Amino acid sequence: MLSRTASNLYWLSRYVERAECLARILDATYRLSALPQGYGSETNEWDSAIATAGSVISFKENYKEANERTVTEWLAFSPENPASIRNCLEIARTNARSVRTALTGEMWDAINSAWHELHRYDPKRITREEFTRFLNFVMETSVRFDGTSFRTMLRNDAYWFSRLGFLVERADATARILDVKYHVLLPREAQVGGPLDYFQWASILRSVSARTSYHWVYRDSVKPWLVADLLILNRQMPRSLASCYENINRYLDDLAQFYGRQGQAQRLARATASRLENGRMEDIFQSGLHEFITQFLIDNNRVGNAIGDQYLI
């Protein structure tokens, strides 16, 4: 496979997954902002949405204040934000067109129809109800594209590069969501374990489609260390860091066997997966969850860069 084709497949999947993650962040933020004032805090949930998306600096260059209107515009529709939902879907469709013959018909239909549907939403006239439908449309688009790729693609290098894009992006998003909740969202004055803390952690679970799974696994009320355990170390949870790296390792090994050689990407991914496999939640909290996640984000970026250097250039 040409490296350009591999790159388009990889980034197509990353941008589709990024659009879904942004939609989930916005949906969770809307739910938090709708809490009764008695549960409110001095922390601005809209600030936390920008922090989770990793675009604090660029946002502040364009807006003075983080509120419902500015954050919605920036993360969902802004052409100036290269990582807005609209731009993610636009770039994903451009990548899909470049590798049209490497996609199945169902995959192309999923991304192309989503691109046409996207232009029905006018950010200047959109209501809250319509925006909720927009977020659901974005999440459904990702599920449809992911499902058609899983059901229709041959298990070859095209499939493996596509899955790697999903997984690297998903691991990044899960880590950022956890970090912002632990380090930013809950104000110092708020009582840990209080009503605000409960609703925020429950919102985090909802934002990664893990609320039902949490209760199946732990059969307990929402507790921070159990949420962190589910989203970091539990390999049964598809969006957990451990699950992502278990599968990243698998697909990188498939590529190594297919092409007859290994490289830095395989070595870095194995090291990251090993740290997650041998990790204990008690040790992670003792050394600092924020520090652990910060190091994971650095490691995940290194793996992404190594994949790019090894296969996509």
Which terms would index this structure?
globular, mainly alpha, 313 residues, 0% strand
What's the arrangement of secondary structure elements?
Layout: H1 3-33, H2 45-53, H3 56-62, H4 68-77, H5 85-98, H6 105-118, H7 128-152, H8 157-185, H9 195-207, H10 211-218, H11 224-232, H12 241-259, H13 264-277, H14 281-287, H15 289-312
Helix pairs in contact: 1-2, 1-4, 1-5, 1-7, 1-8, 1-9, 2-8, 5-6, 6-7, 8-12, 8-15, 12-13, 13-15
Task: Explain this structure.
With about 325 residues, the chain is an all-alpha fold. It has one domain. It is about 75% helix and about 0% strand. The protein is built from 15 helices and no strands. It has helices at about 5-35, 45-55, 55-60, 70-75, 85-100, 105-120, 130-150, 155-185, 195-205, 210-220, 225-230, 240-260, 265-275, 280-285, 290-310. Helix 1 (about 5-35) runs antiparallel to helix 4 (about 70-75), helix 1 packs antiparallel against helix 7 and helix 2 (about 45-55) packs antiparallel against helix 8.
Number of helices: 15
The count of DSSP E runs of length 2 or more, i.e. the number of strands, is 0
Distance between the termini: 12 Å
Task: Please bin the fraction of helical residues.
Answer: over 70%
| Run of helices and strands | HHHHHHHHHHHHHHH
* DSSP strand content: under 5%
Number of domains: 1
- The Rg value, from CA coordinates, equals 19 Å
Main β-sheet, in a few words?
Answer: none
* Unreliable sequence segments: none
